[in-house]
Amino acid sequence: MSYARLNNATRAEIDQSQVFATGAFKIVWKGVYTVGARRGERCVAKEFKTGSVYEKRYFEEEMNVIRLTQGVIDAWHAEQIITRDIRLNTPQIWEMIATGAKVLVEPMIENFEKFNSNTGWASNTGGAWSDAMQALSHFSFHNSNGEFLLCDLQGGVYSDGYVLSDPVIMSRGQNCGPTDLGLDGIRSFFQRHRCGSFCKSGWMKPRVIGRAVHPMRMGTTMINPAHLPTRANRTPLTRVQEGY
C-alpha cells in the first residue's frame, strides 16, 4: 500500500487574484477542482518563483523529492512504528490552459502546521505527532543507509492521520534541489535533533563534530536564494489541466 494523497482530478480553476501563501522558492494559489472525483473540493497550485514556464529542472527535482519521500513513508509504515497513518500530498505537473505555464497541483491541506525545518529547528509544542515527525526524519536517514534525510515536515492532521506536503530531502550528493543543504545540512540537523519516544536507539546518525554549519531557523533555508528572480505577472483567474 502506498500512503499517497492524490489529486484524483484532471482540471481545476485557480484564483490568482491573491497569493495564498509563499515559501522559499514557490508561490501558492488557491483553487477548486472542476473535473474528476474531487470536483468541488479545494486544491492549491504551486508556481516556482523563477517562472514556471522555463524552469523544467525544478519540476524534475521536486518530483524526485516526492518519490524519495513516498518511499520513506511507505517504509515507515512497514515498520509499524506508530498506529496512525502518515500520508503524502502527491502533486502533479499541470498546465495553465491559457498560457501553457507549468504548476504543481495538489489537494488543499487544512489546519496547516510545521514540525521541523532543514536546519534542525523543531516544534516545541510537544505531543505524539511532534515526536512522530522528528522520528520520521531520523528514520529516513537510517532507512536510506545514511544517503539522505527527509525534513521540513509540515502539513495537517485529519481524522484518519496526518498529511504532509512540500518536504525537503537533503542528500550526500546534494542533488535534490535548492533546499538540499547536503552533508553539512544533515549534520546541522542532527546536531539539534533530540530523539523522542518513537526514535529507536539502533537507528543511524551521522558523525557530528564542532558547531553546526547552518544557523537554525524555522523557515526553509536555500543554497543560493539570490539567483531566483521574481515571478511573471499572471491573470487573476486561470484554468489548469492535467498533463506534462
Strand-helix topology:
Elements: E1 4-5, E2 9-15, E3 21-22, E4 26-36, E5 42-48, H1 56-78, E6 85-89, E7 92-96, E8 102-107, E9 113-114, H2 128-143, E10 148-151, E11 154-158, E12 161-164, E13 168-171, H3 182-192, E14 237-242
Parallel strand pairs: 1-6, 6-12
Antiparallel strand pairs: 2-4, 2-14, 3-4, 4-5, 5-8, 7-8, 7-14, 9-11, 10-13, 11-12
Can you walk through the features of this model?
Residues 1-207 form the Alpha-type protein kinase domain. Keywords: ATP-binding, Kinase, Nucleotide-binding, Serine/threonine-protein kinase, Transferase. This is Kinase-like domain-containing protein. Pfam families: Alpha_kinase (PF02816). GO terms for molecular function: ATP binding; protein serine/threonine kinase activity. With 244 residues, the protein is of the alpha+beta class. The chain has helices spanning 56-78, 128-143, 182-192; strands at residues 4-5, 9-15, 21-22, 26-36, 42-48, 85-89, 92-96, 102-107, 113-114, 148-151, 154-158, 161-164, 168-171, 237-242. The strands form 3 sheets. It has a 6-stranded antiparallel barrel. A 5-stranded mixed β-sheet has the order 1-6-12-11-9, covered by helices on one side. A hairpin with a 2-residue loop joins strand 11 and strand 12 (161-164). Helix 1 crosses helix 2. The radius of gyration is 18 Å and the shape is globular. The model is unreliable at 226-235 (pLDDT under 50).
